Amino acid sequence: MKQSMTDQIKGKLHEVKGEVKEKVGQVTKNPNLEAEGRDEKLAGKIQKKVGEIEKVLGE
């Protein structure tokens, strides 16, 4: 599998994990977990975007 596709998949996985952590943090009123979720979600979006850029540039 190409690196660009791997980055896109891993990025989406981090986005989903971050979203879950953020929601659990909100429900349990745990601001640290909520912030950790937001950070992981953002990192996932960035990684996914890097994969998209690599795909466009042809690696």
Task: Summarize the structure in words.
- The chain is 88% helix and 0% strand.
- With 59 residues, it is mostly helical.
- α1 runs antiparallel to α2.
- The relative contact order is 0.26.
- The model has no long low-confidence stretch (mean pLDDT 93).
Number of domains: 1
Helix- and strand-based class? mainly alpha
Strand content: under 5%
Q: Could you tell me the number of beta strands? A: 0
Question: What Rg do the Cα atoms give?
Answer: 13 Å
Mean pLDDT rating: 93
Helical percentage? over 70%
List the total number of helices: 2
State the order of secondary-structure elements, H for helix, E for strand. HH
Largest sheet: none
The coarse silhouette is elongated
Compact overview of the structure:
The chain has 59 residues and is mainly α. Helices cover 88% and strands 0% of the residues.
Architecture blueprint of SSEs:
Elements lengths: L2 H25 L3 H27 L2
What are the key terms here?
88% helix; single chain; mainly alpha; elongated; 59 residues
